[in-house]
Amino acid sequence: MVSEFSIPQLYRTDRRGAVRWIFSHLIHQWFLMVVMFFGAFSNAALAAVLPIIIGRAFDAILAIPPQVQKLLPLVIIIVISQVIRGGLQWCRNFSAEVIAQRMERNIRNEIYISLLGKSMTFHSLQPVGDTMARATNDVREINMMFSPGINLVVGSASFLLIPLIAAPRYHPSLILVPLLFIIAYFLSLWQYVYELSPISDKVRDSFGQLNTSIAEAIDGIETVKGASQEGYETRRIEVDTRQFRDHSVRQGNVEARFLPLLLLSFAEAGGLLHAIILFQQGLIAVGDVVAYFGLIQLFGFPTFISLFAYSQVSMGLAGARRILELISRENNLDQNAGGQSEKIKGEIEFCHVTFTYEPGNNGSSPESQTESEPVIKDVSFRVKPGQTVAIVGQTGSGKTTLAKLVNRTYDVIQGQVLVDGIDVRAWNLEVLRNHISVIEQDIFLFSRSVADNIAFGRQDANMTEVEKAARSAQAHDFITEFKDGYQTTIGERGVTLSGGQRQRLALARAFLTDPSILILDDSTSSIDSATEDKIQQAIFTASKGRTTLIITHRLSQIRWADLILVMRRGELVAAGTHDTLMQTSKAYRRIFADDTQV
Fold first, then answer.
1. Does position 434 have pLDDT exceeding 90, yes or no?
2. Which of 74-88, 421-435, 494-508 bottoms out in mean pLDDT, i.e. has the lowest?
3. What's the number of domains the chain is made of?
4. Nearest to 107 by CA among 138, 62, 128
5. Strands 414-419 and 348-355, how do they pair?
6. Domain housing 490
7. Strand, coil or helix: what is 26?
């Protein structure tokens, strides 16, 4: 499968279907499966010892005179057999639980690696809440599908076979009721699973939708509260909750009509009647009647447990289908591991580049564009290594999209984006991005220490290097004011920091990686005026010796750029230095005349 990122898997999996995929994971646990099957069959066989021995005890007691001396050996046999049975049952349950936990671990690893390998195309379209539901709850359903699900299915299947094997020992005709019950049981079970499967899919899908709605409400809680829309969000969640409830009730309705429970009653009544008739004809003894009826009652375990076990298997398969659909979702960007991998000098060239956000192609636009309208229209320009380029234009003009084509966040539809004269698609993607550092307007920081956040792009950096980068970004002073300094753990997404502090940490992160190309997407918009001069100096220093693309509305940054690109509705309407554009570009002059955000 095409992947933007990949690391070696533990083993290859078959993704041609949910059952094949599950089996390709399960085959690597073959030894534990053997233990589970052996324990299940042995457990059922030893369970049959109990009614057989009790039947013999009845015959011994009813004999004339009663043969009481035979009872003690029978008791000893029962005790020994059931102790062994308990040990075998432990082996079955333990192996099933180990299989389930290993399956959950391996599937979590596979889905996590797959998600990391997806491009922004995928992540732009896929709701985070639904992804989390699949990566957590659906994976857990697969765990429970094996333990207790399949564990009980295997165990119950063994209990179905034992009466069929043991009953004829008393009289050949006594195989009739067990045989008829098993046939009717599997037919009704097939109907049950067939009816339950689509409902299970709807239960899992509605849970994913509910999780998406909750995640969105929590992620946007500041907006919800700021607009006083708690009531609306509550009603919206109620709709999703009601849908999940309705599908769950439908599932319960199907489970309530579980036909094998009725079939068990018929089997017990028919089997007892058959045995009594044979007894009256003198063909079997009283002990045989008791033993045979005890064997028939072994059907009780698979019948009652199937109501839960097969429902759990159905839910697990529904979860597997959802996970597999997520993993197998088409990805447009290839890692190109065998591509160009030399050090990047920093030359950038756009050759008649056109780009459109299309469904299933490059995701949803971060700027206000329709899906069919090109975001970038036949743009061409060239940046020499070490130059600083300012990209200006109104909101929605394509500035951010233009920058994201350089590091292949998205791929062009037409034309070429060249780095050092080589199409970006021909570069090894990891090498390309290691030489390009991007600082977004919306800074993302992890719930880790300050030092870990700065060193995120260079995990091998030491504290001296981290501190040097922080000083260059004018971040050292406020970091040392924290109680634990560089070891201070910041909140999720950096919510414990101000906007200016977050952006300075992001600058420090970029400085530490020492990129050949630096992209600043309006990254100083939240910095106060007192700090702006220091930050501007830091950016100016950092831009020396490397190609820098600055998307900004700060006139002070625009002025000292070597090249200024003026974007309007996806088109490059003007390019040149500040002085040149002031004389030749009406659109550029309007930027300064209006003194508005561009």
1. no
2. 494-508
3. 2
4. 138
5. antiparallel
6. 443-514
7. helix
Residue type, 151: N
Sheet holding 563-568, edge to edge: 436-439, 517-521, 547-551, 388-393, 563-568, 571-576
Mean per-residue pLDDT over the chain, rounded:
84
Say how far apart CA 409 and CA 420 lie, in whole Å.
18
Q: Is the dihedral of CA 517, 522, 525, 526 positive or negative?
A: negative
Buried b (16+ CB within 10 A) or exposed e, 504-516: bbbbbbbbbbbbb
Q: What is the mean pLDDT of residues 538-565?
A: 80
What CATH number is given to the structural domain containing 232? Answer: 1.20.1560.10
CB-neighbour burial class of residue 218 (10 A; exposed 0-12, middle 13-18, buried 19+): exposed
CB 143 within 8 A of CB 100: yes
Query: Sign of dihedral through CA atoms 222, 225, 226, 232?
Result: positive
- The label of the residue with tokens 């030489």 reads 435
CA nearest neighbour of 428 among 329, 494, 333: 333
Element (H, E) at 547: strand 547-551
The span from the CA of 295 to the CA of 168, in Å, is: 11
492 found inside a domain: yes
Q: Which residues contact 50 (CB under 8 A, 6 or more apart)?
A: 78, 81, 82, 294
Gap between the Cα atoms of 470 and 440, Å rounded: 18
Using the predicted structure, report yes or no on whether residue 365 has a pLDDT greater than 50: no
Question: Which region holds residue 339: left if phi is over 0, alpha if psi is between -120 and 50, else beta?
Answer: beta
Q: Among positive and negative, which fits the CA dihedral 542, 548, 553, 559?
A: positive
Question: Where would I find the H helices in 348-462?
Answer: 399-404, 429-434, 450-454
Concatenated DSSP letters for 271-318? HHHHHHHHHHTTSS-HHHHHHHHHHHHTTHHHHHHHHHHHHHHHHHHH
Q: Which of 479, 497, 514 is the last residue of a domain?
A: 514
Between CA 461 and CA 452 the distance in angstroms is 10
Please give the DSSP secondary-structure letter assigned to residue 435: T
What tokens appear for 556 in the block?
């002070």
Same domain, 178 and 30: yes
Which CATH number belongs to the domain containing residue 449 in this structure?
A: 3.40.50.300
The confidence score (pLDDT) of residue 417 equals 94
pTM, two decimals, is 0.72
Tell me the two tokens of residue 104: 């959950």
Q: Which residue has the tokens 């369970």?
A: 47
Burial class (CB in 10 A: 0-12, 13-18, 19+), 159: buried
For residues 488 and 450, what is the distance between their CA atoms, to the nearest angstrom? 6
359 lies in some domain: no
Own/partner pairs for 10-17, CB < 8 Å, 24+ apart?
10/106, 10/109, 13/110, 15/324, 15/327, 15/328, 17/324
